[in-house]
Amino acid sequence: MTVAVLTVSYSSPLSPSTKIKTPPHPNLNSNSSKIQHFRVPKITCSSITTQSQSAKQDLLNLISDQDRGLKTQKDPEKRDEIVKAIDAMAIMGRNTVTTGGSLSATWRLLWTTENEQLFIIEKAYLFGTQAGDVLQVIDVDKKTLNNVTTFPPDGVFFVRSSIEIASSQRVNFKFTSAVLRGKNWEIPLPPFGQGWFETVYLDDEIRVVKDIRDDYLVVERASYNWKE
To answer: Parallel, antiparallel, or unpaired: how do β-strands 144-151 and 134-139 relate?
Structure first.
């Protein structure tokens, strides 16, 4: 995502020691009058792509060894560092629309502070399995969101939600149903909860989110589309 800003540069700036002399009684009708010419500021268009890419890489580096957030739970200093990096990304995404068609995708979890999600990831072994990809599947046109936790090879737990676009960056959601599914079985669960989330940064690769509970989420576009 490239955003252009205007910068002003002067090809011949005056130094602090420069003195401008003007005659005490200028004669505007005299042929000898000298006309001083001042250079017009040159307006150029520059890109902040480099700056945003640097902030993005800083964030990705910070979360790369955090086991999707499990390690961060025990390291408050690391969490604060990551949140500061997220705040920097939010500045990059300020005044952008992140609730349009580009929000529709299968998003794969890289890092989160959501305790419920981290609990499922951590305790999956109690059910004789381990968590695979954790996904958010969003369809803006159909107004749907599925939160999905996979348990390879055949297990999956997903929560269906309806969504409404509330602003340029905020989406309201309401859970409608939940399902725990194995290879040859399925257990429906009652829906629970509603709220909102804000996508504070969005590009062709990642999405950075803050929600109603001040939890954070960093996801990447998955290389596949998940379907029920």
So the answer is: antiparallel
